[in-house]
Amino acid sequence: MGRWPRRLAPWLLVAVVVLAAWRLWPAGAGAPALVLDPTVLLAALPAAEPGTAPGPPDVSASGGDWQPELPRDLGPHPDARAEVWDLGGQLRDDTGARTAIRLTLIRLTLAPHGVERASPLAAAAVLLGRFELVPAQGAPLTTQRASRVAAGLAGAEPDPPRVWLEDWSLALGAAAGEAGDSGALDIRLDDVRLQLTLTPNKAVLAPAAALLDRGAPSGRRPDADPGLRWLTQPRLALAGRLTRAGRDLAVTGSGWLDHVWGDAAAADGIAGSRGQLALNRFMLQLDDGSDLLCIQLHRRAGGGTPIPTCLAIAADGATRVLQRRDLTLAPGDARWRSPADGARYPIAWRLAAPALGLVLRIDALRSDQEVRLGEPLWSGAITVTGERNGRAVSGGGRMDLSGYADS
Fold first, then answer.
1. Which of 250, 255, 334, 383 is deepest in the core (most CB within 10 A)?
2. What 3-state DSSP class applies to 18?
3. pTM
4. Under a CB-based contact definition with an 8 Å cutoff, are residues 110 and 45 in contact?
């Protein structure tokens, strides 16, 4: 594929988190896609006036990496034009049946923060939400909603961090191993109730810094700040109850939280429907307590050699960046063909990292996890099997595949 400009990497890596979340709204009968499409809403907003919506601090000015303020930065950033909380995970009940969950909350700013509103019902922001339950067997559930941030209908608080959209609520802890740092998820629907405790087992990371600074000259970023901030909490222990179709089940599992904020307009088109490059993302949680966050840049036309990069997170929280010389990430033979657009997605992958003693197979939990808004995207739950240094290892996670459908 040749050498891609280093300056593309920051935009692609950070923007994919927002862009993947933006495409979660399904288009189809009964779904008001144009109303809930954040990219359309954002494009309709007036341009931010100077001084009214400052972006993230300039890391180059400080001569070092941006450091998050926790737990504050897990909460809202009213000056940001867009903000995303994206929680995914997999649960098991007493029978061992596996169910994937995902909650995405997106806040879009309508007016500069701090401007007095004429009425308590006037909203300075809107919150969009999407929730899904995806069982390994049986019918999945997907629902979405939107509300203005006013009159208590929706909102976000910084201390402790909490976001709510009507009767959906996500409260977040800050770090692992400290008393009182657990969060909670509460989702209420007509015939579904999900109540979970979220206990962090690892510290919050800023993965862009770990992945992008590798190989750059000392103290310097490889490119200008992309206008977005990205935090990830890679290992949340989930425990609680799921009520659906009259059955009340005790469930446990593991989750992963992404939190992104900044000028979403900066990400438009970087890993989306424009340009020759596309991006795949893999979030793997293994039963030995380790995690992997991997990205793979590839050409839409299929030529050249895709470029993978992984952030390996050990059970004790230690991190290590693996570049393409350290690993192999390649699709297998299994493909799923979309009945809607004919796109053929590779739903089985092989990852080998000799330095970690890892050889893994990644498979879709179920094949039909395409989402359609603008350019189609395959985004869904996966299972992981394989071995580390000759010993069996397994797990789960999520996979986002873009660039396989005609724009």
1. 255
2. helix
3. 0.82
4. yes
